[in-house]
Each structure stands twice: as C-alpha cells, then as structure tokens.
Write a structure and sequence with these properties.
This protein is α/β, with parallel strands linked by helices. It is about 40% helix and about 20% strand. The protein has helices spanning about 15-20, 35-40, 65-75, 85-95, 110-125, and strands at about 1-5, 25-30, 50-55, 80, 100-105.
C-alpha cells in the first residue's frame, strides 16, 4: 500500500508513521509540496497512491482545499485530514470529498493502527465475493 503524507513538517507524522508501518506492506512517501503531492497522485501501477494523509494547513493552502484538487485528479483516492474541527464542522467541510476520517493535530501510533483497521474494512468490502460462494 502506497501512502502519501503531505504536510509542512515531517515530525507531525513521526508517531503515525510507526503505526502505519506495522502492516509490513506499507510504503510511505512524504512531501511538503502540494505540487509534488498532486504529481504523485497522477502515478499509475505500482507507484499509484492508495491513501493520502494531509496535514491541516499546508505551506500554500488549507488541507481541505488540497483535497478538493485531489478529487479532481483522482476521485477514487482515499484521503484523511489531520485537524481539529468539531465533528459537525468536519462533516460539512468535507462532505462529498471522500475523506475517510479526521486525525488529531498530533496523530499517534495508535491512530495509525486504527487507520489501517478502517482501510482493511474498506478493502474487504470492495473485494469480490469468494469463488464458489453460494448465491442467494
């Protein structure tokens, strides 16, 4: 799984990265540039981005604004936003953008593990039915 981390400071993602790395098949790519992040989102094949984690405020724009651009380039990309909006405000600000969840301003290793669980459930829902499964 290729995870793109976009933010102004790498240290914001230190503990989160530990939790995300526990899956064993995770490739983390960090960039502080939204332009490079958008370029990365255009990658195909083995380099294709499976998840984008966006720091709340980037050097040249707000994280939500970046996610709006992300959706135009890759509408099926999973994204997560680091921030501190109350639940209702977060929902209103990200509605229709496909944002999976909001992580706290300083995401922890446990937050990374929880995110992997959520992604596992989503992946499980998208897998085709087992061969030989009984149809109803």
């Amino acid at each position: 799984m290729n995870i793109l981390l976009i933010g102004n400071e790498w240290s914001l993602f230190d503990d989160l990265a530990k939790g995300l790395s526990k899956s064993g098949n995770t490739q983390l790519v960090y960039t502080g540039s939204t332009a490079l992040g958008l370029e990365q989102l255009r990658e195909k094949g083995k380099k294709a981005v499976d998840l984008v984690i966006v720091g709340g405020h980037l050097s040249d724009r707000a994280g939500i604004r970046f996610i709006r651009q992300l959706v135009r380039i890759n509408p099926l990309a999973n994204s997560v936003l680091v921030g501190s909006l109350p639940d209702d405000e977060f929902h209103n600000a990200t509605e229709g953008l496909g944002v999976l969840m909001q992580l706290p301003p300083r995401p922890t290793e446990k937050d990374g593990e929880k995110l992997l669980e959520v992604l596992g459930k989503i992946t499980g829902l998208m897998m085709p039915a087992a061969v030989g499964a009984e149809k109803q």
